[in-house]
Task: structure prediction
Amino acid sequence: MVSRLVLVLGDQLSADLSALRAADKGRDTVVMAEVADEADYVAHHPKKIAFLLTAMRKFAAWLRAEGWDVRYTRLDDSENAGSVVGELLRRAHETGASRVVATEPGEWRLITALTDAPIPVEILQDDRFLASHADFERWAEGRKVLRMEYFYREMRRRTGLLMEDDKPAGGQWNFDHDNRKPAPGTIDHDGPLQFAPDAVTREVLDLVEARFGNRFGDLRPFGMATERSQARQVLAHFVTHALPRFGDYQDAMLRDSRYLYHAGVSAYLNAGLLSPMEICEAVAVAWAEGAAPINAAEGFIRQIIGWREYVRGIYFLRGPGYVQSNALEHDRDLPAMYWGGETRMACMAHAVAQTREDAYAHHIQRLMVTGNFALLAGVSPRQVHEWYLAVYADAYEWVEAPNTLGMSQFADGGIVASKPYVSSGAYINRMSDYCKGCHYSVTAKTGAKACPFNLLYWDFLIRHRPRFSGNARMGNMYRTWDRMDADRRETVLRDAADLLARLDDGAVI
Ligand code: FAD
Ligand code: DLZ
Ligand code: SF4
Result:
């Protein structure tokens, strides 16, 4: 029988990958390649590139130790073809292999490239997820609205996580009402475990610095896990030290505590160093042993078997056109402050500085600070999407696009979110300590010192009144506006228009 190439991509670093399971160790050749096309299709954060290339090199070494023939291409190899398909063709020529077996990539862009490649590529399901495309399609079939909560309950029943017979543990499916506490004064947790760079990591850091050092994003200090055993330590550290309080302060934001009690495992999970079930089982065990309360365990498990699986389902259900979505017809350019440009808004400055330094921000920073501002200001969702895809270490289109375009920007017209996630400054003030040090006043509703979120909030609602006034969950907002004094309403809209004009002129906001 003829030999095949087995493609392993940078976010497929799992021992039980379907392509590896389908291959013959004695006959087939694994292909792994660091290629410019994958680093450049958006301007990925240098830390993200360094993490993936280091993890790829270590995974390749592990595969070799397991007896695989691995052809590994480094970014600076002179023969490097520059693209995944180019590398497959080069290795096919070199080995005489006439077919490729691959696990489905997490982006349509690469699926199309493999499907169109001038060599037959067999694409297998990525069964590292709990719901297959067919499972999700079956669930979605005939439903008018695809709400995550109902999908999640099915996943609980299917996995048996936090189930007592056929009933949810604690008597409720969802404990979110216990999970919205404002920021506490202090946090007794330093965030995810960090690792001093070893020789492999240091070599990659030098390479990434030379090639991508001038991009947005700090490469150093670098403390990410880059192999499975380290990622397992990050998980164990989270379960012991942060999980018990994860639920309580899930939505809070603090200047001096970037992670609060969040896990910081998404980059490892999405690259394949951890599996969703092993994470959830560790959390369920902690709850069963009384080491974590139900609101923490349920809240955390819902993110993984609920949201994570659900957004992937939406991405593949809606097809390659999903990333073009722009239901609200927003077309403003992404302001320079997203790339580190100066801003007087303390919340935006904090979220962007943390993103630049860590390639990480937690969910509420992404949704209610950077996402909220872009939505209120009417920024082109395509540009917002490309920013999120580039700057976070955990970002691949299958997970990033439905979160950004659907949940955050309402660009899909309400498939993921039943109403737009917009708020005035009051929400940010309640959930964070950002406003204390801000140039703007969160209580000022008009005038030069008015918090930009306060002005743009009303401007957004009024601009989109025909679309949203009939939404039962938004009626209160419109009633509040209608009760406002007419002069005040005029001033709010005039100040908002002035703010947007200054934003377009490149003024510091
Ligand atoms: P924790 O808060 O500790 O949560 C635990 C885990 O749950 C995460 O590791 C993650 O795997 C999963 N999870 C939580 N929320 C979501 C969600 N909404 N969708 C999918 N998984 C979730 N997450 C990504 O993994 N990649 C992305 O590119 C990404 N882009 C986002 C863009 C926007 C605009 C928003 C609002 C959210 C995005 N998220 C994304 C979801 C979420 O912000 C991150 O998963 C989370 O911040 C990762 O940090 P953590 O591991 O500390 O998470
Ligand atoms: C994100 C990324 C980067 C920066 N570099 C590589 C690479 O050099 N080689 C590789 O195989 N994968 C890389 N990746 C991850 C891919 O972009 C990812 O597999 C696809 O986007 C599909 O999710
Ligand atoms: Fe952000 Fe407004 Fe608070 Fe300033 S006052 S930190 S702009 S919410």
Notes: The mean pLDDT is 97. The chain has three domains: 4-124, 133-215+227-318, 336-504. The domain at 4-124 is CATH 3.40.50.620 (Rossmann fold).
